[in-house]
Amino acid sequence: MGTLRLVLGDQLTRDISALRGLDKKRDVVLMAEVREEGTYVRHHKQKIALILSAMRHFAEALKQEGIKVDYVKLDDPGNTGSLIGELERALERHKAERAVVTEPGEWRLRATFDAWRQAHDGVFDICDDDRFFASHERFHEWAKGRKSFRMEFFYRELRRETGFLMEGDEPAGGKWNFDSDNRKALPKKLAAPERRRFAPDETSREVMALVEREFSGHFGTLDEFDWPVTREEALSALAHFIEDALPLFGDYQDAMREGEPFLFHSLLSTSLNIGLLTPREVCLAAEKAWREVHVPLNAVEGFIRQILGWREYVRGIYWLKMPDYAETNFLDAREPLPDFYWTGETKMRCISDVVTQTRDHAYSHHIQRLMVTGNFALLAGIDPKEICEWYLAVYADAFDWVELPNTHGMAIFADGGLLASKPYAASGAYISRMSNFCEGCSYDPKARAGKEPCPFNALYWAFLMRNEKKLSKNPRLAMPYRTLAKWDGKRRESIAKEAASFIEKMKEGKA
Ligand code: FAD
Ligand code: DLZ
Ligand code: SF4
Fold first, then answer.
1. What's the pTM?
2. Nearest bound ligand to CA 414?
3. DSSP character at residue 30
4. Nearest partner of 271 among 363, 147, 135, 378, judged by Cα
5. Whose CA is nearest to atom 2 of ligand 2?
């Protein structure tokens, strides 16, 4: 035979580099469901079901094209449980002398593949993943010689290079970034658009039963599973988002509302990350809505910035800095992850709501991830490894290359400011302003008489005091440190005590 072409579960793109130049007569595409990929962290059941269902649909689409596909199911007899094990078996089965794969998105697997390639000279090619706007080389070139990295500057270069939202050499609307328009609180009466749901078909149902059987102890439920699992479904989700949600995406990007996980967000990250959609087509669709249908620029720029800016930037940082990146712990955070990140059982309404949504949908939107569960982990000093593993496990869109920089760098500042210019630390006042969580909470963000004060408040000031040496010089934290400077020793001591007592209760499972 010709070449064995291995396609991974997050590479479900017809144009993936490993399939280029495919010879239908001689080549075989290998796809393998393996236990190791479902358990290197205990992924949410919906993530595993999504990947396996999407893999099966993709394999079927390739077969419809007349391509030979060797598809190994999770419960096939002889399945070795690992991708390398399945690659070796398939090479033997097909008497193939050469295999090719597109580079894996996670450092863990890339290192495994590199080691195997070195041990098997000339057998295995690993080609670039060119589904992104910027190659590794492009990011390296940008990063070279810089003392600090900031997404905004990288984003501007990519805007110029791609031409998205450009008018000649100038950014559309005269500004690169409309973030200051994108922080509105949600009016009570404004309803979020209906979410486009994709009822599980027979393939998905079969996979869901398999997941319940084989990964029964994993976090999350499958009851609400409705992710797009084919390219057609993903395109329909994109069209729905552009029409119904994009116009208000910008205004309410940072808003949160109890019981409503989705609001005006796109829910496209799973489709983008596993290859059902390309970032370019998603950005093109958004830009077209601005040019042709006059969807507001603050919405379209805000959305394109997430994909062209943040998504590319975090991937760049990941590949530039791994594997050392994952080992840093700038704030020396050592507390264990509390149980309520799994159970949702806490009186803190904001956290219980976000954890419940996460359990039911394997989703929560960016501000919930950053300013609720992320902010709490930062303030409480949760160990970076434990909180990063949680994020990698619980979201359907989670892959190390995008999850790690967002958690380790953006949410908990464990990289000391390499990725973000300041820690996203906030007291209960922020959550109260941007959501209605506090209305039904047993705690009070304003600490009025008769109600327990919101734990985020004491934790916030205790965080600033604890890390004063490391953070007080940060110009973006000048204001809160000026406030702290006015406090006498007694006040400091009392807040530190309140926070410490909360952390103790949390560790005893009483928070
Ligand atoms: P929308 O709000 O509709 O945004 C549009 C698209 O922009 C997303 O689909 C996504 O592809 C991209 N995007 C938005 N923000 C980011 C970002 N900060 N980094 C990279 N891409 C971004 N995103 C993941 O895809 N996988 C993860 O594992 C992941 N982990 C995160 C962990 C933490 C602690 C935080 C704060 C953020 C994380 N993000 C992650 C980024 C972001 O929260 C999700 O991409 C977003 O919530 C997905 O929902 P959506 O598709 O509705 O996004
Ligand atoms: C996430 C995942 C899961 C759960 N299962 C599989 C699988 O059975 N087979 C496969 O090829 N890929 C799977 N994946 C995706 C891989 O984990 C992903 O390709 C790597 O994490 C690299 O990004
Ligand atoms: Fe969360 Fe505090 Fe508001 Fe309760 S009062 S919902 S704990 S921010």
1. 0.97
2. 1
3. E
4. 363
5. 37
